[in-house]
Design goal:
The complex is a heterodimer of chains A (188) and B (170).
Chain A lengths: L2 H12 L3 E5 L6 E4 L4 H10 L7 E10 L4 E12 L9 E13 L4 E3 L8 H12 L2 E3 L4 E4 L2 E4 L22 E2 L2 E2 L7 H5 L1
Parallel strand pairs in A: 2-5, 6-7
Antiparallel strand pairs in A: 1-2, 3-4, 4-5, 8-9, 10-11
Chain B lengths: L11 H15 L12 H9 L22 E5 L4 H13 L5 E5 L1 H5 L22 E3 L6 H16 L8 H7 L1
Parallel strand pairs in B: 1-2, 2-3
Helix pairs in contact in B: 1-5, 2-5
Classes of the chains: A alpha+beta (188), B mainly alpha (170).
């Protein structure tokens, strides 16, 4: 299916849940309302016309000027080769964007739809603070229930790839960078 | 040798013992087998036959910190790795030495200002004996660092605690 057809099918099926569709340009995508995302994801995976069986990546984008965080899901539908032993092809690919308020970014996890989503969601939480509710690896601490961090230490404070992130001045007694002086020189 | 520390004047009796001990130590530095980033590739090259770190007796990379006396910190030390690194260092028996290899371990390197996750120099967490700058340092640089460490060991005396020993004990 072409991106136009995919977007059209989604709009016919989900109507209000498809906030915006942009199929021109290099990255055709639709913007899906956050509360309907899980439903849309199941449709994208299971519908005979779609068959998106491969979640390639979840990217997080911080749109600080709009007060929004964005999760971008890149999807592929694979196609087995006609000849035995041939390379796998691609039926079609598409992307879905979810826009979330920056101060309270919650969206349903799709790790039960595509298992690959689990680690990507953990990374999106770790670096940008997008909380995926229902992620299989969820922990609860002073920030509430959220996916476990994957790159930073578990006791890390803040989300480093946010545009307004302040670098830590120290972590567990190890001084970090603050100002123009090297912390060691400062200490002496 | 803590039972002898500070109990003797520097004299003929122990000088020759010093020499023998230092000679043995500096010719059998056994590094811990671990690398943290791209510097580890250069460290492996140093260990391979073209540069052959074994010429200086430092080619026996040990799989356990308990059998090692040299820690070559080769690569970027992140805050998450820092606690593991200190733990490895604490598991090594005395006497022990540390070589900080590469820009990241010397002072944070390219991550100094805009790396939220990198320790700004491994000397903030470990007592470093020799710094080997470079990004990554060529094997010759690491060998030079090793030779400088051998010089340093040559000036140890068993009658006094070495600077790194007293520092790591503190």
């Amino acid at each position: 299916m072409t991106p136009e057809q995919i977007a059209k099918t989604l709009q016919d099926k989900f109507d209000q849940a498809i906030v915006e569709a942009r199929v021109d340009g290099l990255h055709p995508h639709v913007v899906v309302a956050a509360d309907r995302w899980h439903e849309v994801a199941l449709f994208l995976r299971d519908d005979e016309r779609m068959k998106f069986d491969w979640l390639r990546a979840i990217s997080g984008v911080d749109r600080m000027q709009d007060g929004q965080l964005e999760a971008v899901f890149d999807l592929h539908a694979t196609q087995p080769s006609a000849e035995p032993g041939g390379l796998w092809g691609e039926r079609h690919s598409f992307a879905v964007k979810i826009k979330l308020p920056r101060d309270n970014a919650h969206v349903a996890s799709v790790a039960d739809v595509w298992p690959a989503a689990e680690w990507h969601e953990r990374e999106a939480y770790d670096l940008l603070g997008i909380v995926f509710d229902g992620n299989p690896d969820t922990v609860t601490d002073h920030d509430g229930a959220h996916p476990r961090r994957i790159l930073c230490p578990d006791d890390w404070v803040g989300h480093p790839l946010r545009k307004d992130y302040q670098f830590p001045e120290e972590y567990q007694g190890i001084p970090g960078w603050a100002g123009d002086d090297r912390p060691l020189d400062k200490k002496k | 040798m803590s039972f002898m520390v500070n109990r003797f004047e520097e004299g003929l009796m122990i000088t020759s013992v010093d020499w023998a001990l230092n000679w043995a130590r500096q010719c059998s530095l056994w590094p811990v087998t671990f690398g943290l980033a791209c510097c580890a590739i250069e460290m492996m090259a140093t260990g391979a036959d073209r540069w052959d770190i074994d010429r200086f007796g430092a080619g026996a990379y040990r799989p356990s910190p308990r059998q090692s006396d040299l820690m070559i910190v080769a690569g970027t030390v992140t805050y998450k790795m820092a606690s593991r690194l200190v733990r490895l260092f604490n598991q090594m028996p005395e006497p022990k030495w540390v070589i900080a290899m590469g820009a990241c371990t010397v002072g944070g390197g390219p991550y100094y200002k805009y790396g939220y996750h990198v320790v700004k120099g491994v000397d903030l967490i470990l007592p470093v004996d020799v710094y080997v700058p470079g990004c990554p340092p060529r094997p010759e640089s690491l060998l030079e660092g090793l030779l400088r460490l051998r010089d340093k060991i040559a000036h140890n005396t068993i009658a006094k605690a070495s600077p790194s020993q007293s520092e790591s004990a503190a």
